[in-house]
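Figure 2 data, in text form.
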Amino acid sequence: MQIDIIEDCKTFKKIRENWDFVYAADPQAQFFLSWVWLSGWLSVVNEQWFILAAKPDTHDSSYIAFFPLKIVLEQQDGGGFYTELYMAGNSIADYTGMICHPGYEEEVIPAFAAYIQQQLEWSNFNVQNILETDTRMSLFLRSFPGDSFEFSQHRIQNQGEDTDNYMAPYVSLADDWDEYLQNYLSSNTRQKIRRFLRKIENSDEFSITEVNADNLEAHIEILLRLWESTWREKKGDKCDVIMSVIRAILRHCFEHNCLYFPVLWQGETPLGAIANFLDVQQKSMLFVISGRDKTFNNPPPGLILHANAIRYAIQNGFKIYDFLRGNEEYKYSFGVKERRIQHIVVKYKNCQNRKWDVRTLPLAFHLTVQHHRANQLTKAEQGYRQILEVESNHSEALYGLGVLMRQKGEYQTAENLLKNLLQVQPNSIKALFSLGNLYQTQGLLSEAIETYNQVLALQPNAIAAYNNLGYALQQLGKWEDAIACYQKALELQPDCIEAEVNKANALHAQRKLSPDKQAHYAVLNNDLGNKCKQVGDFKTAIAYYQQSISMNPDLAEAQYNLEIVLLENSREVCT
């Protein structure tokens, strides 16, 4: 059995005909595994998804099974990355699984399991939202040997809710509407539905509109506004994300003719709306989301809209009305049966080093940079090193770790990393500039000057390089050369405060700065000292504070700041 990976929308689009053929042949297929659903969902989510596609070991180019999955990057408390596998679409799809052409299950399912164990890197596999009666997933899980893996069942209960989201009520529909009313419902519910539907149909006050191209956007906004009125307080900012996703999915399903979406009105006022997915192939209607005006109960919008949807389903040959996850009490008024859903977690036994899939490397780097910017240096260092273990020439990780090592005072390690980066990218301006700063920090002024000149040879208008070159020359007592560098930086950027202050400091050292300007630049030196202190550059901060005091010994703020930074610097050295 040959297993391929599909991991981009372009390829997924190309195999639609093959997918639809397998879906139509598979009696266990369900809407959340349809090409239409997945194509809409995968295009709007920012997830690392992929699909295992199986074909027989023949020259036949057609696939006979598909298994949608996704990788999620996780991070340990100490900063190390690892990946978990999930079923693709699990965050919104009430059911997950695989589709397979009948007769191939015994070959395909063990082949999928073997591929996942041998070719993918993961620590935990969340087999989520699978039906308890799914025999394929049972066979799949049995393919993970007990001596290497352990299994556990997870149940997540939303705080403050009694709803069991591992229960999925559904109605196995009758062939006739009157038969459904007579045999599925209690007499009380039957009478209510008949009375309320007659009231809507015979009334000039109430009406139900079905969705079309002209009213789609209006229907969507009505539904989401009513839904939000119920859930905003509980879900907070998550509401915005949920509504954005729902809006995109409803549009997609309408475009692909698999959406039943009526709105109940009283005159010009919407009382309720309900959205259902239509799986014509499997003869199933799936209730997705609803919203209603909670101040209006006569007639009850929810009861009317569900009854109307079930009637539509029966009249159009559907066999299942699926309420999906959640055992809310109102669903049981419609003559439902129950299905149970499972969430099984597969873990490696005795896995000391958690496994990490390199496809998540871009996200790992992004998170590592965030840790670095937040001054979480331990996490950032571990992230950079883990990335470099996988990709030793990752230029951004080499640079980031080099900067971090300089922050920690591990200068030789920082130099080695920056030089490694220059082997990969010989003309990297930021690598050369950081190397120059590193030399300057260590007092290796000749090396710093040489490196800054390399930067300027590559980028003649590099303002920061002129400023830092001037500072290195100033430390060597080359005042005129230093002032010329500062002047060049100011010509390129007149508001460059660092160059302006450093130029003033050089003039002050030559006794060429007037007393009133000394007082002015004393304040600016103190401000620059504060900036350097904030980013952990204590050595430069100390130099600025000392220069401030030299210009104005009575500046109490600079005296205080110098004492604080000296104390903090001594603590850092001791640790």
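Caption note: The mean pLDDT is 90.
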